[in-house]
Specification:
six-stranded mixed sheet; Metallo-beta-lactamase, Chain A; alpha/beta
């Protein structure tokens, strides 16, 4: 189901030994002003671009890459995408954009042990995840891109700079790894994560009417039950502090 609506396209993550995040393309293709959300795991860049081409979309029409957050399974393929689309700008929340520009990779790996595993398995050199950020988001912006409008919602807790993208006209939410299907939420034991902040972020999301949930992993959901986010929060609230 690659086409969600006329302006939202879905490329499923291709999990192997490590999870690969879903990638989304938002914007009306005729506008030639498209945005790619979350490139995914290292080595998956060509798969994501090839999937985009198969949907009849020219990757050259992608003007920007927007990160919901900068964990390895979401940002690993960023360099691969940038090499093929060098003009595409990088938009990230300021709190994680600062880390990327400084070459501080704690917001990428989340924990020291995972960093060591990734660097050994993929032969990654320290400093690989140092990037120029073209626009640092804060939350509260309304992004008018590709003849559509998306609200940026700062939803820390899984990571310090996690954002959700909310399309009020079609009631679509792209929450990264903060909220999943099956009443699951993102882990809150990594660098920059915080259970109390995650609780507040879920409350913030629950204030928006969502009919289509497009998370970073696992199932996507159309016809999301009313009150789903609040119900999920109630299940997890005892563990969030």
């Amino acid at each position: 189901m690659p086409k969600i609506t006329e302006s939202v396209y879905f490329i499923p993550g291709l999990d192997e030994m490590m999870p690969d995040s879903h990638t989304y393309v938002i914007g009306n293709p005729s506008s030639k002003d498209l945005s790619l959300i979350d490139p995914g795991l290292l080595g998956k860049g060509e798969y994501k671009l090839d999937s985009i081409r198969k949907m009849g979309i020219d990757p050259e029409d992608i003007q920007r890459i927007i990160m919901t957050h900068t964990h390895f399974d979401h940002i690993g393929a960023l360099s691969e995408i940038q090499k093929k689309i060098p003009k595409a700008e990088l938009w990230i929340h300021r709190l994680e954009g600062d880390f990327l520009e400084q070459g501080d990779e704690r917001a990428v790996y989340g924990m020291d042990m995972f960093q060591q595993v990734c660097q050994m398995q993929y032969r990654i050199k320290p400093g690989t995840f140092t990037f120029k950020v073209h626009r640092k988001l804060e939350g509260g912006e309304m992004l008018k891109v590709g003849d559509t409008a998306w609200e940026v919602v700062h939803i820390p807790g899984h990571s310090t700079g996690s954002i959700g993208l909310y399309h009020p006209a079609e009631k679509i939410l792209i929450p990264g790894d903060v909220l999943y299907a099956d009443h699951a939420i993102g882990r809150f034991d990594l660098f920059g994560a915080n259970g109390e902040e995650l609780k507040q972020s879920l409350k913030r999301l629950s204030q928006r009417k969502v009919e289509i949930l497009l998370p970073g992993h696992n199932q996507i959901v159309k016809n999301l039950p009313e009150g789903y986010t609040l119900e999920t929060l109630k299940q997890w609230e005892p563990y969030l502090g």
